[in-house]
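Agenda item 2: thymidine-5'-phosphate complex prediction
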Amino acid sequence: MSHGVFLSFEGIDGAGKSTHIEALASAFRAAGRTVVLTREPGGTPLAEKLRALALNDPMDALTEALLMFAARRDHLLQVIEPALARGEVVLCDRFTDATFAYQGGGRGFDTQVLATLERWVQSVDALPAGALRQPHLTAWFDLDPAVAAQRLAGARVPDKFESQPQAFFARVAAGYAARARADAGRFLRIDADQPREAVWRDLLAGVRGRGFLP
Ligand code: TMP
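Presented output:
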C-alpha cells in the first residue's frame, strides 16, 4: 500500500491557489492515487458550520483562533487521519500556517498561544507522543499584497477576511514568511506573480522534486 501524503496550500487571499489544487488532484489521480480534496476551515459538517461563523461574524482574535483550531481538530480526526491511514493523498486548501499568518500576523495575536493550541490539536494517535501532524509539504503561493488586492477588486462579494485592508495582508504575508523560515524544509515557495501556466509548472516541478509524484 502507498504511504499517505498530506499536502497543504497557503497564501494570502487572491494568490490564486484554488485552480492549481484541482489540477494537482488530477495529476495524483492520473498517477493512480486516491485523492481527498479538502479545505480549512471546513472539510466536515461541523467544521463547515464553524467556517461560516469564523468567516462572517465579528469576534476577537482568540475566539477566531479557537474556532479555527476546533474546526481543525474535527477535520483531522474525521477526514485527514483516516485518509492518511488508508494511504491516500490529502490535498488541503489551507492548514495551521494560515492561523499563524491570519490570526498571528494579520490580527497580531500571540503566536505562543497559537503554538500551544497547535500542539494540543495536532497530537494524534497515529504519531508517537510529542510528534505533531503537519503537512509533508506546504505549497506557499507568495504574492505581493498590492497585486493580490488588484486581483480581488471587483471579484465576488468579499468575506470578513477578503475585505480587510492591504496593510492586514502585508502582515499576513509576513506571517507566512516567518512560518516558512521556521520550517524551511516543509515549505515550497511558489512565485504567484507569474502567468498561471508558469505557476503550475513550478508547483508540479516542486511536488515532483520532493518525490511525491513520479
Ligand atoms: P479561503 O477563502 O481560502 O477558503 O479561506 C478562508 C479564509 O479564512 C481566508 O481568508 C483565510 C482565513 N483563515 C484564517 O483566518 N485562519 C485559518 O486558520 C484558516 C484555515 C483560514
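Discussion summary: The two ends are 16 Å apart (CA to CA).
Owner for follow-up: CH.
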